[in-house]
């Protein structure tokens, strides 16, 4: 735990992680809050609710790179203030908007969602040393898992005793509070030796959006494709066994295992290749389809959970190492977009596989998606390391990376 103590001792890191956790927990609950509002508040169908959820998710995916690029050029506080104000206006308006307007404004709200996750990753890259970074990103991945465990569950519990409009206001208030907290903290997104990165101008895409970065983004996409598919496969498997009421227990076991895996991985002295972690996660996920009872499914998802946290952490670490300081915001925005797209595709892919086969086919589809992304990442990172000493190539081929100064971006070609 010494590594985590060093990370939390970095000035402002503990406060940032706490405030960011509030914002991210609320953001993971926003789709559930809007779904319940459309179904219970407006009395419309789940298909209509899905349209609002899709609009919000699409906005988040499209807005990530845009907001990241604005942070690179305009500064963090300006972007955060704009997004916080946008969220205030949207969530206050939700209970009075007719469905058509809610659909359009959900897209805009997604485009201007508070970039809590991306800002946290940028701050970690800017304020931690190379030796601290793996533990820091492990904490960030644990933060994400906790938000997914807590956020939707709290919304569902609140909806049982409050009106859906009030629940939506509560979620919006938490997003705004988290965003305002980050504004007050104003964490650095560039290290002291990177202060002149903005003045030097943006490096062209060909200098940083190469094979290594595409490999990292592909594996980010593949990881969330797998994870969103696993959730659906769990429900389908237990529904077929007449045990759907136990799905929440299995999902919690999965989430807790991911937290344990992330914390354990961050304490290790040597990293593991990203493609190896994702490939192993894919294999374990395929074999989880052999479980047909909630007890055995709990056992099966422990293995997948233990690999989830480390995989998410190594992907975030790779993106931060490959992105030069002048485009770090855009790079982390692209990572968020890739992950959002993966979540959207995973449910569709696995749902189709389940409809065409059996519930176990859902686990197979999710696992194969992870394996395909891992293989693609392996091949691309090999191509990258053949041309340059890029961090992802070093990290993913050997499992180690050369030390770098605080806040260093992509290493120059040798």
Automatic annotation (TrEMBL):
The chain crosses the membrane at residues 35-63, 75-94, 168-187, 208-238, 244-265, 272-288, 360-380. Gene3D superfamilies: MFS general substrate transporter like domains. Residues 389-414 are annotated as: Disordered. The keyword Transmembrane helix applies. Keywords: Membrane, Transmembrane, Transmembrane helix. InterPro entries: MFS, MFS_trans_sf. It comes from the Bacteria. This is MFS transporter.
């Amino acid at each position: 735990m010494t590594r985590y103590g060093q990370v939390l001792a970095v000035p402002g890191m503990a406060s940032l992680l706490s405030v960011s956790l509030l914002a991210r927990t609320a953001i993971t609950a926003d789709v559930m809050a809007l779904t319940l509002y459309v179904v219970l508040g407006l009395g419309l169908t789940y298909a209509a609710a899905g349209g609002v959820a899709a609009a919000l998710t699409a906005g988040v995916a499209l807005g990530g790179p845009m907001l990241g690029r604005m942070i690179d050029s305009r500064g963090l506080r300006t972007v955060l203030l704009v997004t916080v104000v946008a969220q205030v206006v949207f969530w206050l308006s939700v209970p009075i908007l007719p469905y058509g307007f809610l659909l359009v404004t959900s897209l805009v709200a997604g485009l201007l969602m508070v970039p809590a996750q991306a800002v946290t990753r940028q701050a970690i890259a800017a304020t931690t040393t190379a030796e601290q970074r793996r533990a820091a990103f492990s904490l960030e991945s644990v933060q994400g898992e906790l938000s997914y465990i807590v956020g939707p569950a709290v919304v569902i519990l609140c909806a049982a005793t409050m009106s859906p409009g009030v629940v939506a206001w509560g979620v919006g208030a938490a997003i705004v509070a988290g965003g305002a907290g980050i504004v007050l903290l104003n964490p650095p997104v560039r290290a002291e030796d990177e202060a002149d990165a903005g003045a030097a101008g943006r490096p062209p895409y060909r200098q940083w959006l190469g094979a290594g970065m595409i490999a990292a983004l592909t594996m980010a996409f593949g990881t969330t494709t797998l994870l969103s598919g696993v959730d659906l496969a769990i429900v389908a498997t237990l529904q077929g066994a007449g045990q759907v009421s136990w799905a929440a227990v299995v999902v919690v076991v999965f989430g807790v295992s991911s937290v344990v895996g992330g914390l354990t991985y961050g304490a290790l002295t040597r990293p593991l290749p990203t493609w190896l972690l994702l490939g192993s996660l894919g294999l374990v996920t395929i074999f989880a389809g052999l479980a047909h009872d909630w007890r055995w499914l709990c056992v099966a998802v422990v293995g997948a959970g233990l690999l989830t946290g480390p995989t998410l952490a190594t992907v975030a670490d790779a993106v931060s190492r490959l992105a030069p300081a002048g485009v770090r915001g855009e790079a982390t925005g692209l990572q968020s977009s890739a992950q959002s797209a993966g979540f959207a595709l995973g449910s569709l892919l696995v749902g189709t596989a389940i409809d065409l086969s059996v519930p176990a086919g859902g686990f197979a589809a999710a696992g194969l998606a992870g394996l395909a992304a891992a293989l693609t990442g392996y091949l691309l990172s090999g191509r990258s390391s053949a041309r340059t000493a890029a961090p992802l190539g070093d990290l993913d081929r050997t499992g180690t990376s050369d030390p770098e100064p605080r806040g260093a971006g992509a290493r120059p070609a040798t």
